[in-house]
Recover the amino acids of this structure.
């Protein structure tokens, strides 16, 4: 799974309609350019590709402020919404993934009903524990990684990451069960995107040819 598609679909969905530079700004505001492949070229490519695939609808609007061709605004389609939630749910339960995908999913967690989010996180823990059981049938941490030479440290690292992930996920579930955050259907959602013209304190300042289109 690619984190960029989940990030872009989520950003467009939160705006309702957004042009590429707005989406780029949101992803930089979230710091996604630091922990994922959300670079300007990847963002603009994803927008165009998903428009061709019918996941986004492209609207031509007024000419850009730079005097160039009409700026394109994107709106998520029904197919795009279905794809967004499919990717979100899959990312929340899948253990064997990169950190950028998990981070993107946590960022959009509140788009789901609270009960469903908790159930998905519990399924994540179940899969981690299932993976750990399978691994430790052939590798017992108590015997120390040295039994496999320095290669044993790789398995040791994987087990520590799995244990850490499970511990963190249990803590998140506890916070959600206590009522943390506002989930879908519970009231006004958290606004995590920049308003039109709002200054982005985390912008990279790097220009891209697609910024004004």
């Amino acid at each position: 799974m690619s984190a960029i598609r989940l990030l872009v679909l989520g950003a467009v969905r939160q705006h309702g309609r957004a042009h590429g530079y707005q989406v780029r700004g949101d992803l930089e505001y979230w710091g996604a350019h630091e922990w994922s492949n959300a670079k300007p070229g990847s963002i603009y490519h994803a927008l165009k590709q998903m428009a061709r695939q019918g996941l986004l609808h492209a609207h031509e609007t007024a000419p850009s402020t730079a005097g160039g061709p009409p700026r394109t605004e994107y709106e998520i389609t029904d197919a795009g919404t279905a794809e967004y939630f499919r990717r979100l749910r899959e990312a929340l339960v899948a253990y064997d993934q990169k950190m950028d995908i998990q981070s993107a999913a946590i960022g959009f967690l509140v788009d789901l009903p609270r009960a469903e989010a908790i159930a998905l996180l519990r399924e994540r823990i179940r899969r981690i524990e299932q993976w750990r059981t399978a691994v430790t049938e052939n590798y017992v941490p108590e015997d120390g990684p040295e039994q496999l030479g320095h290669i044993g440290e790789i398995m040791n690292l994987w087990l520590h990451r799995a244990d850490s992930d499970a511990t963190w996920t249990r803590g998140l579930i506890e916070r959600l069960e206590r009522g943390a955050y506002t989930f879908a259907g519970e009231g006004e959602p958290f606004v995590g995107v920049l308003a039109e013209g709002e200054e982005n304190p985390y912008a990279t300042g790097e220009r891209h040819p697609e910024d004004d289109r």
Remarks:
- The first strand starts at residue 18 and ends at 19.
- The CA atoms of residues 35 and 103 lie 8 Å apart.
